[in-house]
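Write out the bound-state structure for protoporphyrin IX containing FE.
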Amino acid sequence: MIQLPWGGWCVSDADLAQALLRSPEFNAGRSGFFADLLPTRTAQVEVGHAVRNFLRKRLPQYRAALAPAVAELPVATRWPAAGTGLVYQCLADLLLHPGTPAAARRWMTQAVHGGVVFRAPHAWQRARAELLRARLVAAVTEQARQRRQHGVGEARDVLDAVLGACPDEVTDRTVAEVHLTMFRSIVAPVGATLAWSVLLACLHHLDDSPWPWPADQIVREALRHRPMVWMLGRTLTRSAELGGTAFDDGDLLSVSPYLLHHDKQHWTDPAVFRPGRWAEPDECGPYVPFGAGPFACPGASVARTLIAEALIALADDARLTVTGGDTRAIRIEGNVPRPFVLHRATGQQATTTSEGGEQP
Ligand code: HEM
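---
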């Protein structure tokens, strides 16, 4: 157990960490993910599953949007912002369907780069983000009111999925807040993990040949090496004991996915980015990029597919290289890569550069 400077404890032992995440003793009642927005644990689970099922069903639509979106990218793009933008562009119609009034969709698009999805570094930017957030929530509240009036049939977007799963007593405004929570929790980690996957694969494969690893192995390894979620916390609702230490009601116990994923006792060469380890038996130690136990992320498998599909689209018939890449993370509500530039050379450009030509 490591005492944290800002209060609480970090459980660094792998077995105790798993016990903290999985035991009903530490995971009773509602999870902290939706804060107080939803009235019961059942409602939380139903919303999470409804959104996950909707996204899973619409994966073909997302996949179809990727190729034209990637084709529109300039040869050099600034990441991680470009990755978040790409993921958002291909998910936008699934978050709020095209029949939604343009204003709501416009506020959502502005929210992506306006500090609502990732916390902005400067106070003035955060003030502007608050304004954007309020406008988006107001527009989606009005949409929720109208859709409830007309009745929600089969889900056309994430808002319909949320409306279908929320109990009737949840207000329109709260529905809009839940929609915002889901919007951020999908776009931010998927965008950031795509950026880590691109950066780490490019830095670790310097040959001219295409990446030698299947996309899913790159994504799994990026989520191990640089997990987007930095800490998983559990605030105790009654006194409890873990690993022989007694804790009080209200104490905060946390698990660091990063520490567990770099534990030398359980991983071979944990400091090395090595996607191939996912094809080797007995090479995997404790792995919790999506949490574990009753509060684990219901979108884990869909998220991995969203990232892998984007990676495949980016690498399709293209040669990818990065400049300015640095594998140290910055933390903005999660581990995000520092800015880097991705150069994507296609067709003739790719052949020329792989033969030693200059990047355009
Ligand atoms: C790379 C992408 C993603 C990462 C890294 C991620 C990670 C996480 C983590 C660490 C948690 C907390 C688990 C815990 O406390 O034990 C969580 C919760 C959650 N995630 Fe994700 N997530 C991702 C994408 C998604 C997607 C696409 C969805 C869409 C359905 C989603 C929906 C949720 C929900 C609803 C919860 C709350 C679960 C509950 O408390 O019942 N996530 N996620």
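---
The two ends are 52 Å apart (CA to CA).
Residues 21, 31, 33, 44-45, 48, 51-52, 55, 185-186, 189-190, 193, 228-229, 232, 289-291, 295-299, 302-303 surround protoporphyrin IX containing FE (CB under 6 Å).
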